[in-house]
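#struct-pred

JT: dropping the chains for the assembly here, can someone run the whole complex?
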Amino acid sequence: QSALTQPRSVSGSPGQSVTISCTGTSSDVGGYNYVSWYQQHPGKAPKLMIYDVSKRPSGVPDRFSGSKSGNTASLTISGLQAEDEADYYCCSYAGSSVVFGGGTKLTVL
Amino acid sequence: EVQLVESGGGLVQPGGSLRLSCAASGFTFSDHYMDWVRQAPGKGLEWVGRTRNKANSYTTEYAASVKGRFTISRDDSKNSLYLQMNSLKTEDTAVYYCARVAVGALHFDYWGQGTLVTVSS
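RK: done, full complex below.
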């Protein structure tokens, strides 16, 4: 199972919006509505931000939203804040396995 | 409060073995699938494998990179998850996280802080 494809880095200024893409195949992203997104700050464990493509756990700001079209899922962060600077990973169910994206480093300028 | 605490990491020579543990508390451990996810230094997350719950016969799944070398088990009476790692390779060097799979779902809602495994001669 190959890793999902994410851009290595994205950036934006405070208050702006950024979108991180996550491209897979019909065997993972495109085949199931089980895409999740995780935020990871340096030296910390990942934190769930979005699950089932577009659902937000309690406590996650509504500035974070998710969507999917075909084999590509997207995470959008609006109203960027300094604390959003982190690595973001997409993840998809793939039948009997799980596959992660390579990760995207978000820089808040 | 949900807590997952990994232990057992350390330095091991190539070809050696190591057993990681994950102690769970603050929730009904037996209800959940539990996974191991690893992260090599400076790299991204990589799924290692899963153990399902008793209702699903404790079946396991593994990533191709570890299949046949790693074994995931659990002891619901001790609220503990284990990862037995054999025939270790230098490329197995990583922080190993245990992660809880949300009930009736397929995402990780809680993660431990991880334990570092270094495979080196």
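JT: nice. DSSP finds no helices and nine strands in chain A. Residues 13 and 109 of chain A are 5 Å apart (CA to CA).
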